[in-house]
């Protein structure tokens, strides 16, 4: 498959990204309703045609049409002719749908261990002290060989650390009960936002996103994120940050390939940097800078370039700027900044044109074959070959059912992990306590004594015994024993 340029549209000539420069990252910016989604669709399908797998979050529910051929119309044909495409071929791209809730795609799960303490701390919005405690919890679990798989395992591990904090302090550092409590409360909030769907097994692997079809086209992975983005934007952004981290850690160095090996589109990119600790922002900037040597291109989609740190913005060589509005002083500043990020064109008043662009037009600058930004040009965006607009529910479900991943992730698996191990320990402690109580006692009755080390465990076990027998009781068992004794893998 020849590495043909990725056509974006046309000014007085074709405007396209050189495949060899496509892993130098990019930006798609513009106000709502100015055509960003169509530009994203054009680029995603162009990468797919080039044999490059792609990941795209769909936060508005209108991107799924990339899987189906477009519908012919006079308007579409005329636009295609204006940008030099005649005839316009209409076809869909190979697509895999994902959804952490499992309703509009294959379930996407990760284990707590896969996610790691740094991203988990971001997800839970922990402060520095709580973040340090989360690191400690993971370290203890690693040292003891306890696997951490899902939320109940993490709650169990937190409870065990709290119960043994005096023993752990000498080797691992101080364990503050207040921080344990704060993390537990944050986990309850996460669970109410759908966290129980997100963590567990079977867990996805990076290889799931790196597929090509039988014709050699790259598969477009679409994360249905409408509900996720609406209810928990922090979960959404952290999920994509995990994917970015995995790509950086696992993809081998490839130097300067003739085309990317993978492209990640990050919609609503401002969420990646908002309320993020400076240390993590520095890490993100480093990953963006270095990941291109892995053959990975990252394309940020947002309303304004000002949503991104300057250190990241400076690394985005391919830029598509749709219209911005300038109603307020802040809007006017955003327009100025956007204009200043382009290489000037003497024949174009960039700052003025940004506010005049029509839907389907954009200011575009790409890297030439030497890696130099081209002068900015007012560009008519080409029409996509696939459908503009969403699939029907039936069409989506047919694609999901016919996917090579069908049946692999559909049903959750809850194998033995920390929670189950520690629950058994609690049950054993309860059985031992009952044995002690039925032994012959001295003439003067006295209450059985327990040591400080096993008092909480015994109390939990007794509570468990009282609770068993109803569905509500079983839920209490999971929550109480999970928080006190569960370990995880």
Molecular structure report:
The protein has 489 residues and is of the alpha/beta class. 45% of the residues lie in helices and 12% in strands. The protein has helices at 36-49, 74-82, 112-123, 128-144, 151-163, 165-172, 177-198, 226-231, 233-250, 270-273, 278-290, 310-313, 329-340, 350-354, 393-401, 418-438, 452-467, 471-485; strands at residues 6-10, 14-17, 26-29, 54-58, 95-99, 106-107, 220-224, 262-267, 296-302, 318-321, 361-365, 377-381. It has a 12-stranded mixed sheet with strand order 2-1-12-11-10-3-9-8-4-7-5-6, sandwiched between helices. A hairpin with a 3-residue loop joins β1 and β2 (14-17). Residues 446-489 have low confidence and may be disordered.
Core attributes:
twelve-stranded mixed β-sheet, 12 strands, 12% strand
Total helical elements: 18
- Average pLDDT, rounded to a whole number, is 86
Number of extended strands: 12
Radius of gyration from CA coordinates: 27 Å
As laid out across the biggest beta sheet, the strand order is: 2-1-12-11-10-3-9-8-4-7-5-6
Strand content: 5-15%
- CA-to-CA gap between the ends? 44 Å
Poorly predicted runs of 5 or more residues = 446-489
Sequence of secondary-structure elements: EEEHEHEEHHHHHEHHEHHEHEHHEEHHHH
Main β-sheet, in a few words?
A: 12 strands, mixed
* Helix share bin: 40-55%
* Class per helix and strand makeup: alpha/beta
Oligomer: single chain
* Morphology: elongated
